[in-house]
Design goal:
The chain is of the alpha+beta class and 164 residues long. The chain contains three helices and four strands. About 6% of the residues have low confidence.
Length: 164
């Protein structure tokens, strides 16, 4: 009887603890441009890839949050732009019971880690539909990027408070 009571208390405590669940993953925006087609297909393929990534979060109703990961890729061969592709991969997440630091890390690193494989696959599909070789982007360490951003913000805060 005591064991059942303590298990019931533990179950109730778990319900009050942190919660995280993925509600939906979707493409929010998608674009592809090949400004030099069809001439670009007749040139030697010697690509240089520039990748820009960005994340943003928005609180929705209750404990729901939208996280949008934007991947923008510009591929040049020589000086010519072969193509520009961009995807905004988004997700809706239910997140409860986290302190401010844990919530910031979850929205800034953990959620983008979940979204990245979907964004990468969407970009690869888009690029191959444009008749270019798939990009096969390398994995991104969002935890490291998040840590760098936090350090940069701390330095910026220290610099602005020392300037006063």
């Amino acid at each position: 009887m005591t064991e059942q009571a303590s298990n019931g208390a533990a179950a109730a405590q778990n319900e009050q603890g942190p919660q995280f669940s993925l509600q939906r993953i979707y493409v929010r925006d998608l674009s592809f441009e090949a400004p030099k087609s069809p001439e670009i297909f007749r040139q030697e393929w010697n690509p240089s890839v520039a990748l820009d990534l960005n994340t943003k979060q928005k609180a929705l109703e209750g404990d729901f949050h939208e996280v949008v990961l934007t991947l923008s890729v510009t591929v040049k061969t020589g000086e010519e732009v072969a193509f520009i592709a961009e995807v905004q991969q988004a997700g809706i997440f239910l997140i409860k019971g986290l302190d401010a630091a844990a919530m910031s890390h979850t929205l800034g690193a953990f959620c983008p880690n979940i979204l990245f494989p979907y964004a990468r696959e969407t970009l690869d599909s888009l690029v191959t539909r444009g008749s270019f070789p798939a990009l096969m982007l390398a994995p991104v360490n969002f935890d490291a990027l998040y840590a760098q951003e936090m350090a940069r913000m701390q330095q910026a805060g220290a610099a602005s408070s020392s300037a006063h």
